[in-house]
Amino acid sequence: MFQHVIEIPQTQEDHPIWNQQLRGATYCRTSTNQEEQNSSLENQIAYYTAFIQSNPLWRFVAVCADQASRLHTKNRSGYRKILRGCRRGKIHLILVKSLSRFGRDAREAISTIRKLK
């Protein structure tokens, strides 16, 4: 086994986002129009809106949502809107329930995150 440990010191760039002034938004999505999915969407919106607003350094910008979004990302207006806000510098932080809510699959989610970074 490894017996030598290399410590990598934290740099200025590694500050936790909690202590930064950011404009935050949430992206919420459901896959179907079923009743339990509707309440899931409402719960996602309420939770992440409150979470962003709980940090005094963050400014809440928007909720972007898509309902019954089995569609490809190019057909999801809320998804396109939140990415447009990021590209324009109006949104610094996106909160989502899970990566599966952000992208249709891991490849798409990772690709989009890399573009935003």
UniProtKB/TrEMBL annotation:
<dbReference type="InterPro" id="IPR006119">
    <property type="entry name" value="Resolv_N"/>
</dbReference>
<dbReference type="GO" id="GO:0000150">
    <property type="term" value="F:DNA strand exchange activity"/>
</dbReference>
<dbReference type="Pfam" id="PF00239">
    <property type="entry name" value="Resolvase"/>
</dbReference>
<dbReference type="GO" id="GO:0003677">
    <property type="term" value="F:DNA binding"/>
</dbReference>
<dbReference type="InterPro" id="IPR050639">
    <property type="entry name" value="SSR_resolvase"/>
</dbReference>
<protein>
    <submittedName>
        <fullName>Recombinase family protein</fullName>
    </submittedName>
</protein>
<feature type="domain" description="Resolvase/invertase-type recombinase catalytic">
    <location>
        <begin position="23"/>
        <end position="117"/>
    </location>
</feature>
<dbReference type="InterPro" id="IPR036162">
    <property type="entry name" value="Resolvase-like_N_sf"/>
</dbReference>
